[in-house]
Amino acid sequence: MAVITEPSGSNLSAQQVKRERKQQFKIAGRAYLWLLPILISMAAIVYYPLIYGVVLSFTNANQDNIALHLGSTTLPATYKFVGFQNYIDIIQSWFMPGSDGAHILLQTVIWIVANIVLHFVISLGLALILNRKMRFRAIYRVLLMVPWAMPQYVSAFGWLFLFNQQYGFIDVALQSMHLPIIPWASDPNWALVSVIIVNVWLGIPFTTVTLLGGLQSIPTEMYEASAIDGATRWQALRFITLPMLRPIAFLVTLLDVIWTFNAFSIIYLITQGGPFNRTQTLVTYAWVQAIQGKQLFGVGGAYGVIILVILLIFTFFYSRLLRANETVY
What's the pLDDT tens digit per position in 228-253? Predict the structure, then answer.
Protein backbone atom coordinates (compact mmCIF):
# COMPACT_ATOMS: atom_id res chain seq x y z
CA MET A 1 0.00 0.00 0.00
CA ALA A 2 1.44 3.34 -1.03
CA VAL A 3 2.02 5.91 1.66
CA ILE A 4 1.04 9.51 0.84
CA THR A 5 3.26 12.04 2.52
CA GLU A 6 2.19 15.62 3.13
CA PRO A 7 4.60 18.35 1.97
CA SER A 8 6.59 19.91 4.74
CA GLY A 9 5.87 23.44 5.96
CA SER A 10 8.90 24.92 4.22
CA ASN A 11 8.02 23.30 0.87
CA LEU A 12 4.40 24.42 1.22
CA SER A 13 5.40 28.01 1.90
CA ALA A 14 7.85 27.97 -1.00
CA GLN A 15 5.12 26.71 -3.32
CA GLN A 16 2.75 29.41 -2.09
CA VAL A 17 5.35 32.10 -2.69
CA LYS A 18 5.97 30.69 -6.17
CA ARG A 19 2.25 30.67 -6.98
CA GLU A 20 1.84 34.23 -5.67
CA ARG A 21 4.75 35.46 -7.76
CA LYS A 22 3.34 33.72 -10.81
CA GLN A 23 -0.05 35.35 -10.18
CA GLN A 24 1.54 38.78 -9.73
CA PHE A 25 3.49 38.28 -12.97
CA LYS A 26 0.25 37.45 -14.81
CA ILE A 27 -1.48 40.52 -13.41
CA ALA A 28 1.47 42.76 -14.32
CA GLY A 29 1.63 41.18 -17.76
CA ARG A 30 -2.04 41.93 -18.40
CA ALA A 31 -1.59 45.50 -17.17
CA TYR A 32 1.37 46.12 -19.49
CA LEU A 33 -0.53 44.46 -22.33
CA TRP A 34 -3.36 46.96 -21.89
CA LEU A 35 -0.85 49.81 -21.64
CA LEU A 36 1.07 48.71 -24.72
CA PRO A 37 -1.08 50.62 -27.28
CA ILE A 38 -0.74 53.80 -25.19
CA LEU A 39 3.02 53.34 -24.85
CA ILE A 40 3.38 52.77 -28.60
CA SER A 41 1.26 55.84 -29.34
CA MET A 42 3.28 57.96 -26.89
CA ALA A 43 6.53 56.72 -28.44
CA ALA A 44 5.35 57.57 -31.95
CA ILE A 45 3.64 60.89 -31.20
CA VAL A 46 5.73 62.33 -28.35
CA TYR A 47 9.08 60.66 -27.72
CA TYR A 48 10.26 60.07 -31.30
CA PRO A 49 9.58 63.69 -32.43
CA LEU A 50 11.15 64.93 -29.19
CA ILE A 51 14.34 62.92 -29.68
CA TYR A 52 14.48 63.81 -33.38
CA GLY A 53 14.02 67.50 -32.54
CA VAL A 54 16.83 67.34 -29.97
CA VAL A 55 19.12 65.76 -32.57
CA LEU A 56 18.24 68.41 -35.18
CA SER A 57 18.87 71.20 -32.65
CA PHE A 58 22.61 70.41 -32.83
CA THR A 59 22.68 70.76 -36.63
CA ASN A 60 22.21 73.46 -39.26
CA ALA A 61 19.28 71.59 -40.82
CA ASN A 62 16.96 73.63 -43.03
CA GLN A 63 14.78 73.14 -46.09
CA ASP A 64 17.81 73.27 -48.40
CA ASN A 65 19.92 70.53 -46.83
CA ILE A 66 17.49 67.93 -45.48
CA ALA A 67 16.87 64.63 -47.25
CA LEU A 68 14.30 64.79 -50.06
CA HIS A 69 12.30 61.94 -51.57
CA LEU A 70 11.24 62.67 -55.16
CA GLY A 71 9.48 59.56 -56.40
CA SER A 72 12.12 56.84 -56.70
CA THR A 73 14.93 59.37 -56.31
CA THR A 74 16.27 60.26 -52.87
CA LEU A 75 18.53 63.22 -52.25
CA PRO A 76 20.62 62.62 -49.12
CA ALA A 77 20.76 65.11 -46.28
CA THR A 78 23.73 67.47 -46.29
CA TYR A 79 23.24 69.29 -42.99
CA LYS A 80 26.14 69.31 -40.56
CA PHE A 81 26.64 69.04 -36.83
CA VAL A 82 27.17 72.51 -35.32
CA GLY A 83 27.19 71.64 -31.63
CA PHE A 84 25.65 74.23 -29.32
CA GLN A 85 25.86 77.05 -31.88
CA ASN A 86 22.06 77.31 -32.28
CA TYR A 87 21.63 77.58 -28.52
CA ILE A 88 24.39 80.19 -28.25
CA ASP A 89 22.86 82.30 -31.01
CA ILE A 90 19.41 82.20 -29.42
CA ILE A 91 20.60 83.08 -25.91
CA GLN A 92 22.92 85.82 -27.20
CA SER A 93 20.00 87.40 -29.08
CA TRP A 94 18.13 87.76 -25.78
CA PHE A 95 20.78 90.14 -24.48
CA MET A 96 21.12 92.26 -27.63
CA PRO A 97 19.07 95.48 -27.11
CA GLY A 98 16.61 96.08 -29.92
CA SER A 99 16.91 92.58 -31.39
CA ASP A 100 13.95 90.33 -32.11
CA GLY A 101 15.22 87.87 -29.51
CA ALA A 102 15.20 90.50 -26.74
CA HIS A 103 11.71 91.68 -27.70
CA ILE A 104 10.36 88.12 -27.87
CA LEU A 105 11.80 87.22 -24.46
CA LEU A 106 10.29 90.37 -22.92
CA GLN A 107 6.95 89.70 -24.62
CA THR A 108 6.97 86.14 -23.31
CA VAL A 109 7.50 87.38 -19.74
CA ILE A 110 4.75 90.01 -20.12
CA TRP A 111 2.44 87.42 -21.67
CA ILE A 112 2.92 84.92 -18.82
CA VAL A 113 2.83 87.38 -15.92
CA ALA A 114 -0.21 89.28 -17.21
CA ASN A 115 -2.19 86.11 -17.88
CA ILE A 116 -1.32 84.41 -14.59
CA VAL A 117 -2.10 87.47 -12.46
CA LEU A 118 -5.39 88.22 -14.24
CA HIS A 119 -6.41 84.56 -14.24
CA PHE A 120 -5.87 84.24 -10.50
CA VAL A 121 -7.35 87.57 -9.39
CA ILE A 122 -10.48 87.37 -11.54
CA SER A 123 -10.98 83.65 -10.89
CA LEU A 124 -10.60 84.07 -7.13
CA GLY A 125 -13.24 86.80 -7.16
CA LEU A 126 -15.64 84.68 -9.21
CA ALA A 127 -14.98 81.62 -7.04
CA LEU A 128 -15.76 83.61 -3.88
CA ILE A 129 -19.01 84.83 -5.43
CA LEU A 130 -20.07 81.39 -6.68
CA ASN A 131 -19.21 79.82 -3.32
CA ARG A 132 -21.92 81.89 -1.64
CA LYS A 133 -25.55 80.84 -1.55
CA MET A 134 -27.47 82.59 -4.31
CA ARG A 135 -30.29 81.97 -6.72
CA PHE A 136 -29.44 80.33 -10.07
CA ARG A 137 -25.93 79.49 -8.85
CA ALA A 138 -25.92 76.26 -10.88
CA ILE A 139 -26.79 78.20 -14.05
CA TYR A 140 -23.97 80.66 -13.45
CA ARG A 141 -21.51 77.79 -13.06
CA VAL A 142 -22.65 76.24 -16.33
CA LEU A 143 -22.37 79.56 -18.16
CA LEU A 144 -18.87 79.99 -16.72
CA MET A 145 -17.75 76.80 -18.48
CA VAL A 146 -18.83 77.97 -21.94
CA PRO A 147 -15.52 79.67 -22.89
CA TRP A 148 -13.57 76.59 -21.79
CA ALA A 149 -15.87 74.14 -23.60
CA MET A 150 -15.87 76.16 -26.82
CA PRO A 151 -13.18 75.24 -29.40
CA GLN A 152 -10.35 77.75 -29.29
CA TYR A 153 -10.51 78.61 -32.97
CA VAL A 154 -14.20 79.50 -32.61
CA SER A 155 -13.39 81.76 -29.66
CA ALA A 156 -10.49 83.31 -31.57
CA PHE A 157 -12.64 84.10 -34.62
CA GLY A 158 -15.36 85.57 -32.40
CA TRP A 159 -12.90 87.87 -30.66
CA LEU A 160 -11.26 88.68 -33.99
CA PHE A 161 -14.61 90.01 -35.16
CA LEU A 162 -14.98 92.06 -31.97
CA PHE A 163 -11.51 93.56 -32.53
CA ASN A 164 -12.25 94.54 -36.12
CA GLN A 165 -11.50 98.27 -36.47
CA GLN A 166 -14.31 98.89 -38.98
CA TYR A 167 -17.14 96.56 -37.97
CA GLY A 168 -16.14 95.25 -34.55
CA PHE A 169 -18.51 95.84 -31.65
CA ILE A 170 -15.84 97.45 -29.46
CA ASP A 171 -14.70 100.11 -31.92
CA VAL A 172 -18.24 100.72 -33.19
CA ALA A 173 -19.35 101.35 -29.60
CA LEU A 174 -16.45 103.74 -29.08
CA GLN A 175 -17.33 105.62 -32.26
CA SER A 176 -20.95 105.92 -31.16
CA MET A 177 -19.71 107.59 -27.97
CA HIS A 178 -17.44 109.90 -30.03
CA LEU A 179 -14.30 108.28 -28.60
CA PRO A 180 -11.19 107.33 -30.57
CA ILE A 181 -11.14 103.75 -31.81
CA ILE A 182 -8.52 101.27 -30.61
CA PRO A 183 -6.04 100.13 -33.29
CA TRP A 184 -6.09 96.47 -32.24
CA ALA A 185 -4.36 95.13 -35.35
CA SER A 186 -1.93 97.93 -36.25
CA ASP A 187 -0.56 99.02 -32.87
CA PRO A 188 1.93 96.53 -31.31
CA ASN A 189 0.92 97.32 -27.73
CA TRP A 190 -2.80 96.99 -28.36
CA ALA A 191 -2.21 93.82 -30.36
CA LEU A 192 -0.47 92.28 -27.33
CA VAL A 193 -3.34 93.45 -25.12
CA SER A 194 -5.86 91.83 -27.47
CA VAL A 195 -4.29 88.36 -27.29
CA ILE A 196 -3.95 88.65 -23.50
CA ILE A 197 -7.67 89.50 -23.25
CA VAL A 198 -8.63 86.43 -25.28
CA ASN A 199 -6.35 84.11 -23.36
CA VAL A 200 -7.59 85.43 -20.01
CA TRP A 201 -11.18 84.88 -21.14
CA LEU A 202 -10.37 81.29 -22.10
CA GLY A 203 -8.40 80.46 -18.95
CA ILE A 204 -10.72 81.89 -16.30
CA PRO A 205 -13.19 78.92 -16.26
CA PHE A 206 -10.56 76.30 -15.39
CA THR A 207 -8.93 78.44 -12.70
CA THR A 208 -12.28 79.43 -11.23
CA VAL A 209 -13.60 75.88 -11.02
CA THR A 210 -10.36 74.67 -9.41
CA LEU A 211 -10.32 77.47 -6.83
CA LEU A 212 -14.03 76.93 -6.18
CA GLY A 213 -13.32 73.30 -5.37
CA GLY A 214 -10.64 74.44 -2.92
CA LEU A 215 -13.03 76.91 -1.28
CA GLN A 216 -15.67 74.23 -0.82
CA SER A 217 -13.16 71.99 0.96
CA ILE A 218 -12.61 74.59 3.73
CA PRO A 219 -14.68 73.65 6.83
CA THR A 220 -17.51 76.10 7.46
CA GLU A 221 -16.89 75.75 11.21
CA MET A 222 -13.77 77.87 10.82
CA TYR A 223 -15.79 80.77 9.43
CA GLU A 224 -18.44 80.35 12.10
CA ALA A 225 -15.81 80.45 14.83
CA SER A 226 -14.19 83.54 13.32
CA ALA A 227 -17.58 85.29 13.11
CA ILE A 228 -18.20 84.55 16.79
CA ASP A 229 -14.79 86.08 17.58
CA GLY A 230 -15.81 89.23 15.71
CA ALA A 231 -13.67 88.77 12.57
CA THR A 232 -14.65 90.77 9.49
CA ARG A 233 -15.01 89.27 6.02
CA TRP A 234 -11.64 90.71 5.02
CA GLN A 235 -9.99 89.16 8.08
CA ALA A 236 -11.65 85.80 7.35
CA LEU A 237 -10.37 86.00 3.76
CA ARG A 238 -6.87 86.94 4.85
CA PHE A 239 -6.40 84.56 7.79
CA ILE A 240 -8.60 81.60 6.82
CA THR A 241 -9.45 81.49 3.11
CA LEU A 242 -6.10 82.38 1.57
CA PRO A 243 -3.93 80.18 3.86
CA MET A 244 -6.28 77.20 3.45
CA LEU A 245 -6.45 77.80 -0.30
CA ARG A 246 -2.70 78.09 -0.72
CA PRO A 247 -1.94 74.44 -1.75
CA ILE A 248 -4.58 74.39 -4.49
CA ALA A 249 -3.58 77.91 -5.56
CA PHE A 250 0.03 76.77 -5.96
CA LEU A 251 -1.07 73.80 -8.07
CA VAL A 252 -3.43 75.76 -10.32
CA THR A 253 -0.75 78.42 -10.85
CA LEU A 254 1.76 75.77 -11.92
CA LEU A 255 -0.67 74.30 -14.44
CA ASP A 256 -1.63 77.77 -15.63
CA VAL A 257 2.00 78.77 -16.24
CA ILE A 258 2.62 75.65 -18.33
CA TRP A 259 -0.61 76.11 -20.27
CA THR A 260 0.01 79.82 -20.88
CA PHE A 261 3.68 79.35 -21.81
CA ASN A 262 2.74 76.76 -24.44
CA ALA A 263 -0.24 78.73 -25.80
CA PHE A 264 0.04 78.96 -29.57
CA SER A 265 -3.33 78.91 -31.31
CA ILE A 266 -4.68 82.14 -29.80
CA ILE A 267 -1.69 84.24 -30.81
CA TYR A 268 -1.50 82.66 -34.25
CA LEU A 269 -5.22 83.04 -34.99
CA ILE A 270 -5.59 86.59 -33.62
CA THR A 271 -2.38 88.35 -34.69
CA GLN A 272 -0.11 85.69 -36.27
CA GLY A 273 2.66 87.20 -34.15
CA GLY A 274 2.35 90.67 -35.69
CA PRO A 275 2.60 93.47 -36.13
CA PHE A 276 6.39 93.47 -36.49
CA ASN A 277 6.72 90.30 -34.36
CA ARG A 278 5.51 92.27 -31.33
CA THR A 279 3.08 89.58 -30.18
CA GLN A 280 5.42 86.66 -30.66
CA THR A 281 6.38 84.46 -27.72
CA LEU A 282 9.09 81.83 -27.56
CA VAL A 283 6.60 79.15 -28.57
CA THR A 284 5.17 80.97 -31.58
CA TYR A 285 8.60 82.19 -32.69
CA ALA A 286 9.92 78.63 -32.55
CA TRP A 287 7.18 77.68 -35.00
CA VAL A 288 8.08 80.64 -37.23
CA GLN A 289 11.72 79.58 -37.33
CA ALA A 290 10.97 75.92 -38.02
CA ILE A 291 8.01 76.20 -40.43
CA GLN A 292 7.94 79.62 -42.06
CA GLY A 293 10.62 81.42 -44.07
CA LYS A 294 13.79 79.39 -44.58
CA GLN A 295 12.47 76.60 -42.37
CA LEU A 296 15.40 76.49 -40.00
CA PHE A 297 14.68 73.11 -38.43
CA GLY A 298 17.85 73.17 -36.33
CA VAL A 299 17.04 76.57 -34.83
CA GLY A 300 13.40 75.57 -34.29
CA GLY A 301 14.53 72.39 -32.53
CA ALA A 302 16.84 74.43 -30.30
CA TYR A 303 13.95 76.72 -29.36
CA GLY A 304 11.87 73.66 -28.50
CA VAL A 305 14.57 72.23 -26.25
CA ILE A 306 15.09 75.58 -24.51
CA ILE A 307 11.36 75.88 -23.85
CA LEU A 308 11.27 72.34 -22.47
CA VAL A 309 14.24 73.00 -20.18
CA ILE A 310 12.72 76.28 -18.92
CA LEU A 311 9.44 74.54 -18.04
CA LEU A 312 11.23 71.60 -16.38
CA ILE A 313 13.37 73.93 -14.25
CA PHE A 314 10.35 76.02 -13.30
CA THR A 315 8.31 72.90 -12.44
CA PHE A 316 11.15 71.48 -10.33
CA PHE A 317 11.67 74.58 -8.19
CA TYR A 318 7.96 75.36 -8.01
CA SER A 319 7.23 71.81 -6.82
CA ARG A 320 9.89 72.13 -4.13
CA LEU A 321 8.30 75.40 -3.05
CA LEU A 322 4.90 73.70 -2.98
CA ARG A 323 6.21 70.87 -0.80
CA ALA A 324 7.86 73.36 1.55
CA ASN A 325 4.57 75.27 1.75
CA GLU A 326 2.64 72.06 2.57
CA THR A 327 5.18 71.28 5.32
CA VAL A 328 4.65 74.69 6.92
CA TYR A 329 0.87 74.53 6.72
Answer: 888 888 888 888 898 899 889 988 99
